[in-house]
Amino acid sequence: MTQTFLFVMVMLLAQARGFADGGTVQMRKEAGPFLITVFTSPAPLSAGPADISVLLQNLDGLTPVLDARVSVLLHRDASSTEIKAHATREQAQNKLLYAALVTLPESGGEIDVAQSHTMAGSYWSYIALPPLMIAGFVIREWLIRRKPALRAN
Question: What is d(CA 59, CA 80) in angstroms, rounded to the nearest whole number?
Fold first, then answer.
């Protein structure tokens, strides 16, 4: 029973951290002979550090293009702020993608960007793990000590 409880807890915590290689699909669009898919991470995307990944494919056959020069240009209509970054395959975990690390200064824009998270909010799973483990141990010990008392009656 304890092993099952521990397994379930580990799986729940791992699920909160599990993301696909590119993150969340934000856009998929045909442009000339290419199909461009843009992924962003973290999910949901928020102001602050972000990973923008691009999958570039040929329209005929959908084969990935692995020898392109990919640049990312982000701007918001409401302000004059522009973010330019060169996306490379070396920065990507999945080598079929081109990735660029950027810092988003504010929320809003065509791609939904939420407000930045507080520091404690971004580490909630790490903060919650020790109390959960202690509670699991206390419940286990209580159940073990309770069994002999039940047998005596």
Answer: 34
